[in-house]
Structures are given as structure tokens and as C-alpha cells.
């Protein structure tokens, strides 16, 4: 199985001279089986270029049947879709799979909402391809030769991690995820008078938080490639608590705990330049060694990088 990154940036596209090496497109990942079978994760702006690639390389072989797994529906994970060339071709079949929405909106409504006439000249139902939407929860299913399982992550909207199994190999994506934390214990430590705190309840919350974080790590156990949220450094995170993202340090820990073989740091912060990412990459490899790892291959994801598992 092979994975290729088409968009690695978090939050907003960041074109320009400072992001040429790692790329400025938002989340989009192409996965291929040994016989070129295709699976796409996320429809950020990287999807536009992937669409052009599919039209040049796959369409000559026959009509495009495309499965797109959405981790969630924040802008940076759906905004490439209106510019996805295969959606304009009548023979294309496109199946979206994405998390149910707790706010009562259908997946189709949310994705097509970005194409409302005020924002975009072409409506979803005017696209020529056959496009379908399927809402999913924590579950397991098959898409052609790929076995897919899902796990809820900690993000300000329902967001899914994916575990893709093909033959004996696995790829896991865990991004747009912030480690769960015990906000009751945080409140307690902020205040001098602890009389009105129920220590037992706080302890129970602590156990729950640990279990939820462990559940996510268990989901990725032993994977060949782990694509992990590494938007912030530990220092930056102090002012971004609750925004739904992890730190580079947490990503390394996750790589070590899950005993993954390769760890791709993903969803780079928009402020991050190529120069900074290069420097962070060196520090990160050192840090991973200090934290006790000598086996995991750690790298920062960049556009067009292909990784085999
Ligand atoms: Zn995101
Ligand atoms: Zn998000």
C-alpha cells in the first residue's frame, strides 16, 4: 500500500515563497493498493491537484469510482471539493463517507453548503458526477479491497480517525485531535480554596480522560504508518488549549506508545515556514531519540511525498 500527501497544512491554505517545500494546501491524502485501487482521505485544497492527476492518469483506464473519507467538515477538510475535476465528469461516481453531525445537519447539506450561490456559482446538484453521501459513526466497513475502521477523536466537532487495512498493512490517521484533559482538575489547581471540589469525582474524571486517550492510542496500535496531528509546539499550545489540536511532543509520544513503524507529522500550523519545519524536523528526530525511540521513522509530511508501507 502507498500513501501520497496532496495537502498537509492545517486550518487555511498558505501559498507563497515560504511554503514551497512542504506545501500550502490543506488536508488531502491519496491511498493506493497494489493494483492501483484508490482511497482518498479528506477534501482540503490538495484535492484539486489530485483531481487533475486522476483525470490525466486514471481516467484513460476507465470511469472514475472514488471513495472519499472525510475526517470532519471543517473548512480545511472540505474546501477543495468544488474544484475537484472528476466531479464535473458524467461517468464519475463519488462516494463521500463522513461523521454524523451532532448539530442535526446532514453530511450532504454541510458539504454542499459551501457551494450555496452566495459562495460559489455551481450547485452540488449541477455537478455531472453521481455523488453520494454516507454518514458514519465508530464502525468497521469495507471499501473494495480496503478495510476501514473509525474512532472518534477529541475536536470541537465530531471528527474521525481512520484505520485502513490492506492485505497485512495498515495506515492510521489521527489528526484534528487534541488529547482529552481533565478540566475539573485544572479548575481545582487554579483556585486556592478546594473545599467545594469533590476530589473523588475529579479522580473519576481523571480515569475517564486517561481511558479516552488510551482508546485513541489503542486504535493505532502497531500500525505501519501513523499520520498524526502536530500543529503546535508544546510552548505554542499553552495559548491554544481547547482548539482541537495536538503538539509535536504529543505526536512523538503517540508514535512511541502505539509502536508504529513510521510517524508522519501532519496538519502544520499556517504560520510554519519551510525553514521552521526543517529546523523542527531535526529537533523532533532528536527528541524522539531522547524519549526512548530508536526505531520509528519520524518525518514531517509534505505535499507529493509518497510513503510505502
Ligand atoms: Zn483541520
Ligand atoms: Zn478541524
Helices and strands in order:
Blueprint: E1 2-7, E2 28-32, E3 38-41, H1 46-57, E4 65-69, H2 75-78, E5 93-99, H3 107-113, E6 130-136, E7 140-143, E8 146-152, E9 160-166, E10 169-174, H4 183-190, H5 199-219, E11 225-229, H6 234-237, H7 248-258, E12 262-266, H8 274-290, E13 297-300, E14 306-308
Parallel strand pairs: 3-4, 4-5, 5-6, 10-11, 11-12, 12-13
Antiparallel strand pairs: 1-2, 1-14, 2-3, 7-8, 8-9, 9-10
Bound molecules: zinc ion (2 copies).
Bound molecules: zinc ion
Corresponding CATH superfamily: Ribonuclease Z/Hydroxyacylglutathione hydrolase-like
CATH architecture: 4-Layer Sandwich
Helix content range: 25-40%
Q: If strands are numbered along the chain, what order do they take across the biggest sheet?
A: 6-5-4-3-2-1-14
The largest β sheet comes out as:
7 strands, mixed
Question: What's the helix count?
Answer: 8
The radius of gyration computed from the alpha-carbon positions, rounded to a whole number of angstroms, is 20 Å
Number of domains: 1
End-to-end gap: 6 Å
Order of helices and strands: EEEHEHEHEEEEEHHEHHEHEE
> Which CATH first-tier class would you pick?
Alpha Beta
CATH topology, by name, is Metallo-beta-lactamase, Chain A
Shape: globular
Structural class, by secondary structure, is alpha/beta
Poorly predicted regions are none
The total of beta strands comes to 14
Mean pLDDT: 95
Question: What percent of residues are in strands?
Answer: 15-25%
Amino acid at each position: 500500500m502507498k500513501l501520497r500527501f496532496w495537502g498537509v497544512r492545517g486550518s487555511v491554505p498558505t501559498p507563497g515563497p515560504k511554503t514551497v517545500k512542504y506545501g500550502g494546501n490543506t488536508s488531502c491524502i491519496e491511498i493506493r493498493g497494489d493494483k492501483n485501487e484508490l482511497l482518498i482521505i479528506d477534501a482540503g485544497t490538495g484535492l484539486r491537484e489530485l483531481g487533475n492527476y486522476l483525470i490525466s492518469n486514471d481516467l484513460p483506464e476507465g470511469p472514475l469510482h472514488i471513495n472519499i473519507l472525510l475526517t470532519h467538515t471543517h473548512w480545511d477538510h472540505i474546501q477543495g471539493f468544488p474544484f475537484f475535476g472528476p466531479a464535473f465528469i458524467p461517468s464519475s461516481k463519488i462516494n463521500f463517507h463522513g461523521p454524523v453531525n451532532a448539530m442535526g445537519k446532514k453530511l450532504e447539506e454541510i458539504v454542499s453548503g459551501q457551494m450555496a450561490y452566495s459562495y460559489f456559482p455551481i450547485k452540488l446538484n449541477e455537478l455531472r458526477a453521481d455523488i453520494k453521501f454516507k454518514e458514519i459513526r465508530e464502525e468497521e466497513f469495507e471499501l473494495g479491497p480496503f478495510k476501514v475502521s473509525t474512532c472518534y477523536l477529541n475536536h470541537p466537532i465530531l471528527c474521525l480517525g481512520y484505520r485502513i487495512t490492506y492485505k497485512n498493512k495498515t495506515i492510521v490517521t489521527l489528526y484534528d485531535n487534541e488529547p482529552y484533559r481533565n478540566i475539573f482538575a485544572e479548575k481545582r489547581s487554579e483556585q486556592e480554596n478546594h473545599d467545594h471540589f469533590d476530589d473523588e469525582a475529579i479522580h473519576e474524571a481523571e480515569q475517564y480522560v486517561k481511558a479516552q486517550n488510551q482508546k485513541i492510542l489503542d486504535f493505532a496500535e502497531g500500525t505501519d504508518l501513523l499520520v498524526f496531528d502536530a500543529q503546535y509546539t508544546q510552548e505554542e499550545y499553552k495559548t491554544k488549549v481547547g482548539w482541537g489540536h495536538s503538539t509535536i511532543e504529543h505526536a512523538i509520544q503517540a508514535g512511541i506508545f502505539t509502536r508504529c513503524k513510521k510517524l508522519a507529522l501532519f496538519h502544520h500550523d499556517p504560520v510554519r515556514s519551510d525553514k521552521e519545519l526543517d529546523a523542527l524536523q531535526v529537533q523532533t528526530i532528536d527528541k524522539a531519540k531522547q524519549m526512548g525511540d530508536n526505531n520509528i521513522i519520524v518525518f514531517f509530511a509534505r505535499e507529493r511525498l509518497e510513503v510505502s508501507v
